[in-house]
Specification:
Layout lengths: L1 H6 L13 H26 L14 E3 L2 E10 L2 E5 L4 E6 L6 E2 L4 E5 L2 H37 L4 H33 L2 E3 L4 E6 L6 E2 L4 E7 L3 E8 H4 L7 E6 L6 E9 L9 E8 L11 E7 L3 E3 L8 E3 L2 E7 L6 E5 L1
Antiparallel strand pairs: 1-16, 2-11, 2-15, 3-10, 4-6, 4-9, 5-8, 6-7, 8-10, 11-14, 12-13, 12-15, 13-14, 17-18, 18-19
Length: 335
């Protein structure tokens, strides 16, 4: 039995496949292919494509830049209006933005005090005139008596002096009465010229002092375009004194002005200089406060014009790249 069992086991043939070695061979082959593909991609990535650039041949040429700034339309003349007498504001008849004519009553203060002063001045004037009438009658009587020899020269001189004093009292009373009348008229604040109310500083019931600003009026007439300009721009001489003014909201509305005033000092808040441009014929489309653009051209100067994309930096300074036409090499040159 044992011999039959032993003879049934035969040694493996050389043609029998090795099941343990086949998976390992497949893994090694796949790994080799993957490494080969990775090497090829890395070699392709290391090959950099040439950078395409655009070059320009530049030279010195005349350049006249135009400078444009934003400003605002303002009145040539601004008036701060105030009462000439103090008191409580009884009426305020206008508001900001309202157009007024010359002589328009803008506000009134309570006139009770001024009316009382006027009545007192009237009473003083009446009393002075009564004294003058009496003194004049006394003088005429003394004059007649002196001519007839029925009075003394001393009494005549006394009557003459009393007449002069009475006349002086009447003159003083008349002046006081006129002042009282004027003070009563000052309780009404009237516009001295036609214009637009641009500011209001009081309300009804408020007590104001004499000369305290109540309204600000922009008078009708020529307008200015006001700009805040950098000091470096003010130092440059323009090619023409004419300034083109266009409305910011509608460029079709335009006018031509001329610089009439340059502030001698720099504004400490903004670091700029205020420049006023006179506009003789201001278009109706440029009202007070309208935003405008002022444009002026500089004198032509020799310069090299470059696109802004050509600018770069080298060692922290502005520079451009220059191409050598012979070698095609590029170098950074400061500008």
């Amino acid at each position: 039995m044992s011999s039959n069992a032993t003879s049934s086991v035969s040694p493996p043939s050389a043609k029998t496949p090795n099941l343990l070695s086949c998976p390992a061979a497949s893994i090694l082959a796949c790994t080799a292919l993957a490494l080969l593909a990775g090497c090829q991609k890395q070699e392709a990535a290391e090959k950099k494509l040439p950078v395409m650039v655009r070059t320009e041949t530049v030279a010195m040429a005349d350049y006249a830049p135009r400078t444009s700034l934003t400003g605002v339309i303002a009145a040539r003349t601004l008036n701060n209006l105030s009462f000439r007498v103090g008191g409580r504001v009884a009426e305020r008849l206008v508001d900001v933005g309202q157009h007024i004519d010359q002589g328009t009553v803008l506000a009134r203060i309570d006139p009770q005090e001024q009316e009382s002063d006027l009545r007192s001045a009237q009473a003083d004037l009446d009393a002075a005139q009564a004294q003058l009438t009496q003194a004049a009658a006394t003088f005429e009587r003394q004059k007649t008596l002196l001519a007839q020899g029925f009075t003394t020269r001393r009494d005549y001189d006394a009557a003459d002096q009393a007449l002069k004093v009475a006349q002086g009292s009447v003159d003083a009373a008349r002046s006081a009465f006129a002042n009282a009348q004027q003070n009563l008229s000052f309780t009404e604040l009237k516009a001295g010229a036609a214009g637009v109310i641009t500011a209001r500083q009081v309300e009804t019931g408020q007590v104001v002092q004499a000369a305290q600003t109540v309204f600000t009026v922009a008078e009708d007439g020529d307008r200015d375009a006001v700009f805040n300009v950098q000091e470096t721009l003010v130092a440059k001489t323009p090619a023409s004194p004419a300034v083109t003014i266009t409305l910011l909201s509608d460029p079709q509305v335009r006018a031509t002005g001329k610089v009439r005033e340059i502030s001698p000092a720099v504004d400490p808040a903004s670091g700029s200089i205020r420049v006023k441009v006179a506009i003789p014929d201001t278009p109706a489309g440029m009202p007070l406060g309208a935003a405008v653009i002022g444009s002026v051209g500089a004198k032509p100067a020799k310069a090299i014009l470059l696109p802004w994309q050509a600018l770069t930096s080298s060692a922290g300074k502005p520079a451009v790249w220059i191409v050598d036409p012979a070698t095609k090499a590029v170098t950074a040159a400061p500008v």
